[in-house]
Amino acid sequence: MTVPDFQALYADHLAAMKRRADEALARGGFDHLVVPSGTLHYQLFDDRDYPYAVNPQFKAWLPLTRVPNSWLVYTPGQRPKVLFHQPFDYWHVVPDAPSGWWVEHFDIHIIRKPEEALALLPKTAARCAILGEAQSTLGDYAPNNPQPVVDYLEYQRSYKTPYEIALMREAQRLGVRGHRAAEAAFREGKSEFAIHMAYCGAVGQDLGELPYNNIVALNEHGAVLHYTELGRTAPAQSRSFLIDAGASFHGYASDITRSYAADTSGEFQALIDAVDTAQIKMGEGVRAGTDYKQLHIDAHVSLMGILKDFGVIKVSPEAALETGVSAAFFPHGLGHPIGLQVHDVAGFAESDRGGKIARPAGHPYLRMTRVLEPGMVVTIEPGLYFIDMLLDEVKKNGHAASVDWARVEAFRPYGGIRIEDEVMCTDGEAENLTRPAFAASA
Ligand code: GLY
Ligand code: MN
Ligand code: MN
Which one of 47, 83, 254, 294 is at 20 to 30 Å from 101 when CA atoms are compared? Predict the structure, then answer.
């Protein structure tokens, strides 16, 4: 496999970032874009800091995720500046001196104390669009997050540059490495916690770096959508395994889910296979001009077709959708934009001047309501679950006759199934970013 030329790709990415910033500043009526990297947050009544989370507006420019108290300064027509905080500190490991494919493009000023940034920021704070958290305030430089600037930049972030796609592919590769190790640990009968550790070990990342908390669920736990409790002892019998876990690469996330059956010739495996085949098809629907809301609705129909085939529901997929029965089995959205953030920004954006595209009625958890365009990357993550609370609602709402409850009982011990890939919209066919990483590691 050829290694991407990040150096060359980054130059184009930076040029795109400057163009976007030029327009955003013009819209907001500002002269400078100023972006603090963020600060450490401390636990209440304690001197322990939370894991540092870099300001996404900062890492959009720079592959720097571990340099708090630093600043990016961009003035149209000028070389961008980085105020790089590298303290004298013998308590902690301090950030390495700036290096990498970005350094040649910036004027870099090392600051040893956060306040040293003050002398290096543009002279008039009022002329700056400052994008950050309130806690990053330094003197007059308080983040103002002007709406027209934020709206424009977030909207543009939907269109991933080739550099970003290359980084996201690396995040897929890392995540898949973990998924392979996790599956092996499941097949060895390990506990959820031990599987999680196997995942982290293989990826080389833990809570501080992973893009979200791993969901590692055996048996019935697969029915808890965000199951993060991680049992310390292995169950007597591991029947099924759902893992939703990603990885980070220079600030870009992957978000991958796989489902497994211990008995690979049983009925639950057959159900997984049916969802897998349907998921691939759904991913192929990621095409320019297609409304993501429609993909979500189509996914309901497709998944209910599977439940009908398996005898779990007794009504047509369309009837299950109409009555809300399908939402009891598939109670989350089909997916979301992804990039610098797992749930990336602008999934509902009506335009680069703001506005929100509403979710379809009855689908409160969908996180993407836009029409797809080339350069967007979204997750496609259909699921089928056997969730007591939601199935009780089906009974209460008068739709008990739509479901074969004996079939539900047969599948309940397996929890649920979710399969999740990242898919890029191009000006032609959809490009699945996740599956090639699995194929390469087979
Ligand atoms: N892992 C969170 C999600 O799939 O959206
Ligand atoms: Mn997701
Ligand atoms: Mn996920």
Answer: 254
Ligand 1 closest atom vs CA 246: 1
Ligand 1 binding pocket includes 344 (Cβ within 6 Å): no
Q: How far is the CA of 16 from the centre of ligand 2 (A)?
A: 27
Question: Is residue 318 domain-shared with residue 406, that is, in the same domain?
Answer: yes
Q: 12 C-alpha vs ligand 3 centroid, how far in Å?
A: 30
Residues 145, 169, single domain; the answer is no
Model-wide pTM > 0.90: yes
Measured CA to CA, the distance from residue 369 to residue 356 in angstroms comes to: 9
Check the CA dihedral 288-292-298-300 and report its sign.
positive
Residue at a domain's end among 123, 156, 189: 156
Task: Check pocket membership of 244 for ligand 1, CB cut-off 6 A.
Answer: yes
383: exposed, middle or buried (C-beta count within 10 Å: 0-12, 13-18, 19+)?
buried
- 64 and 92 co-located in one domain: yes
| Whether residues 107 and 234 fall in one domain | no
What are the pLDDT digits (tens) for 188-203? 999 999 999 999 999 9
Report the number of distinct structural domains present in the chain: 2
Is there an atom of ligand 1 within 6 Å of 228 CB?
Answer: no
Q: Give the Cα separation of 72 and 158 in Å (integer).
A: 21
Does residue 281 sit in the same domain as residue 245? yes
Ligand 1 atom nearest to CA at 255 = 1
CA-wise closest residue to 202 among 251, 168, 169, 246? 246
pLDDT tens column, 251-276: 999 999 999 999 999 999 999 999 99
Identify the domain containing residue 18 by its residue range.
Answer: 3-156
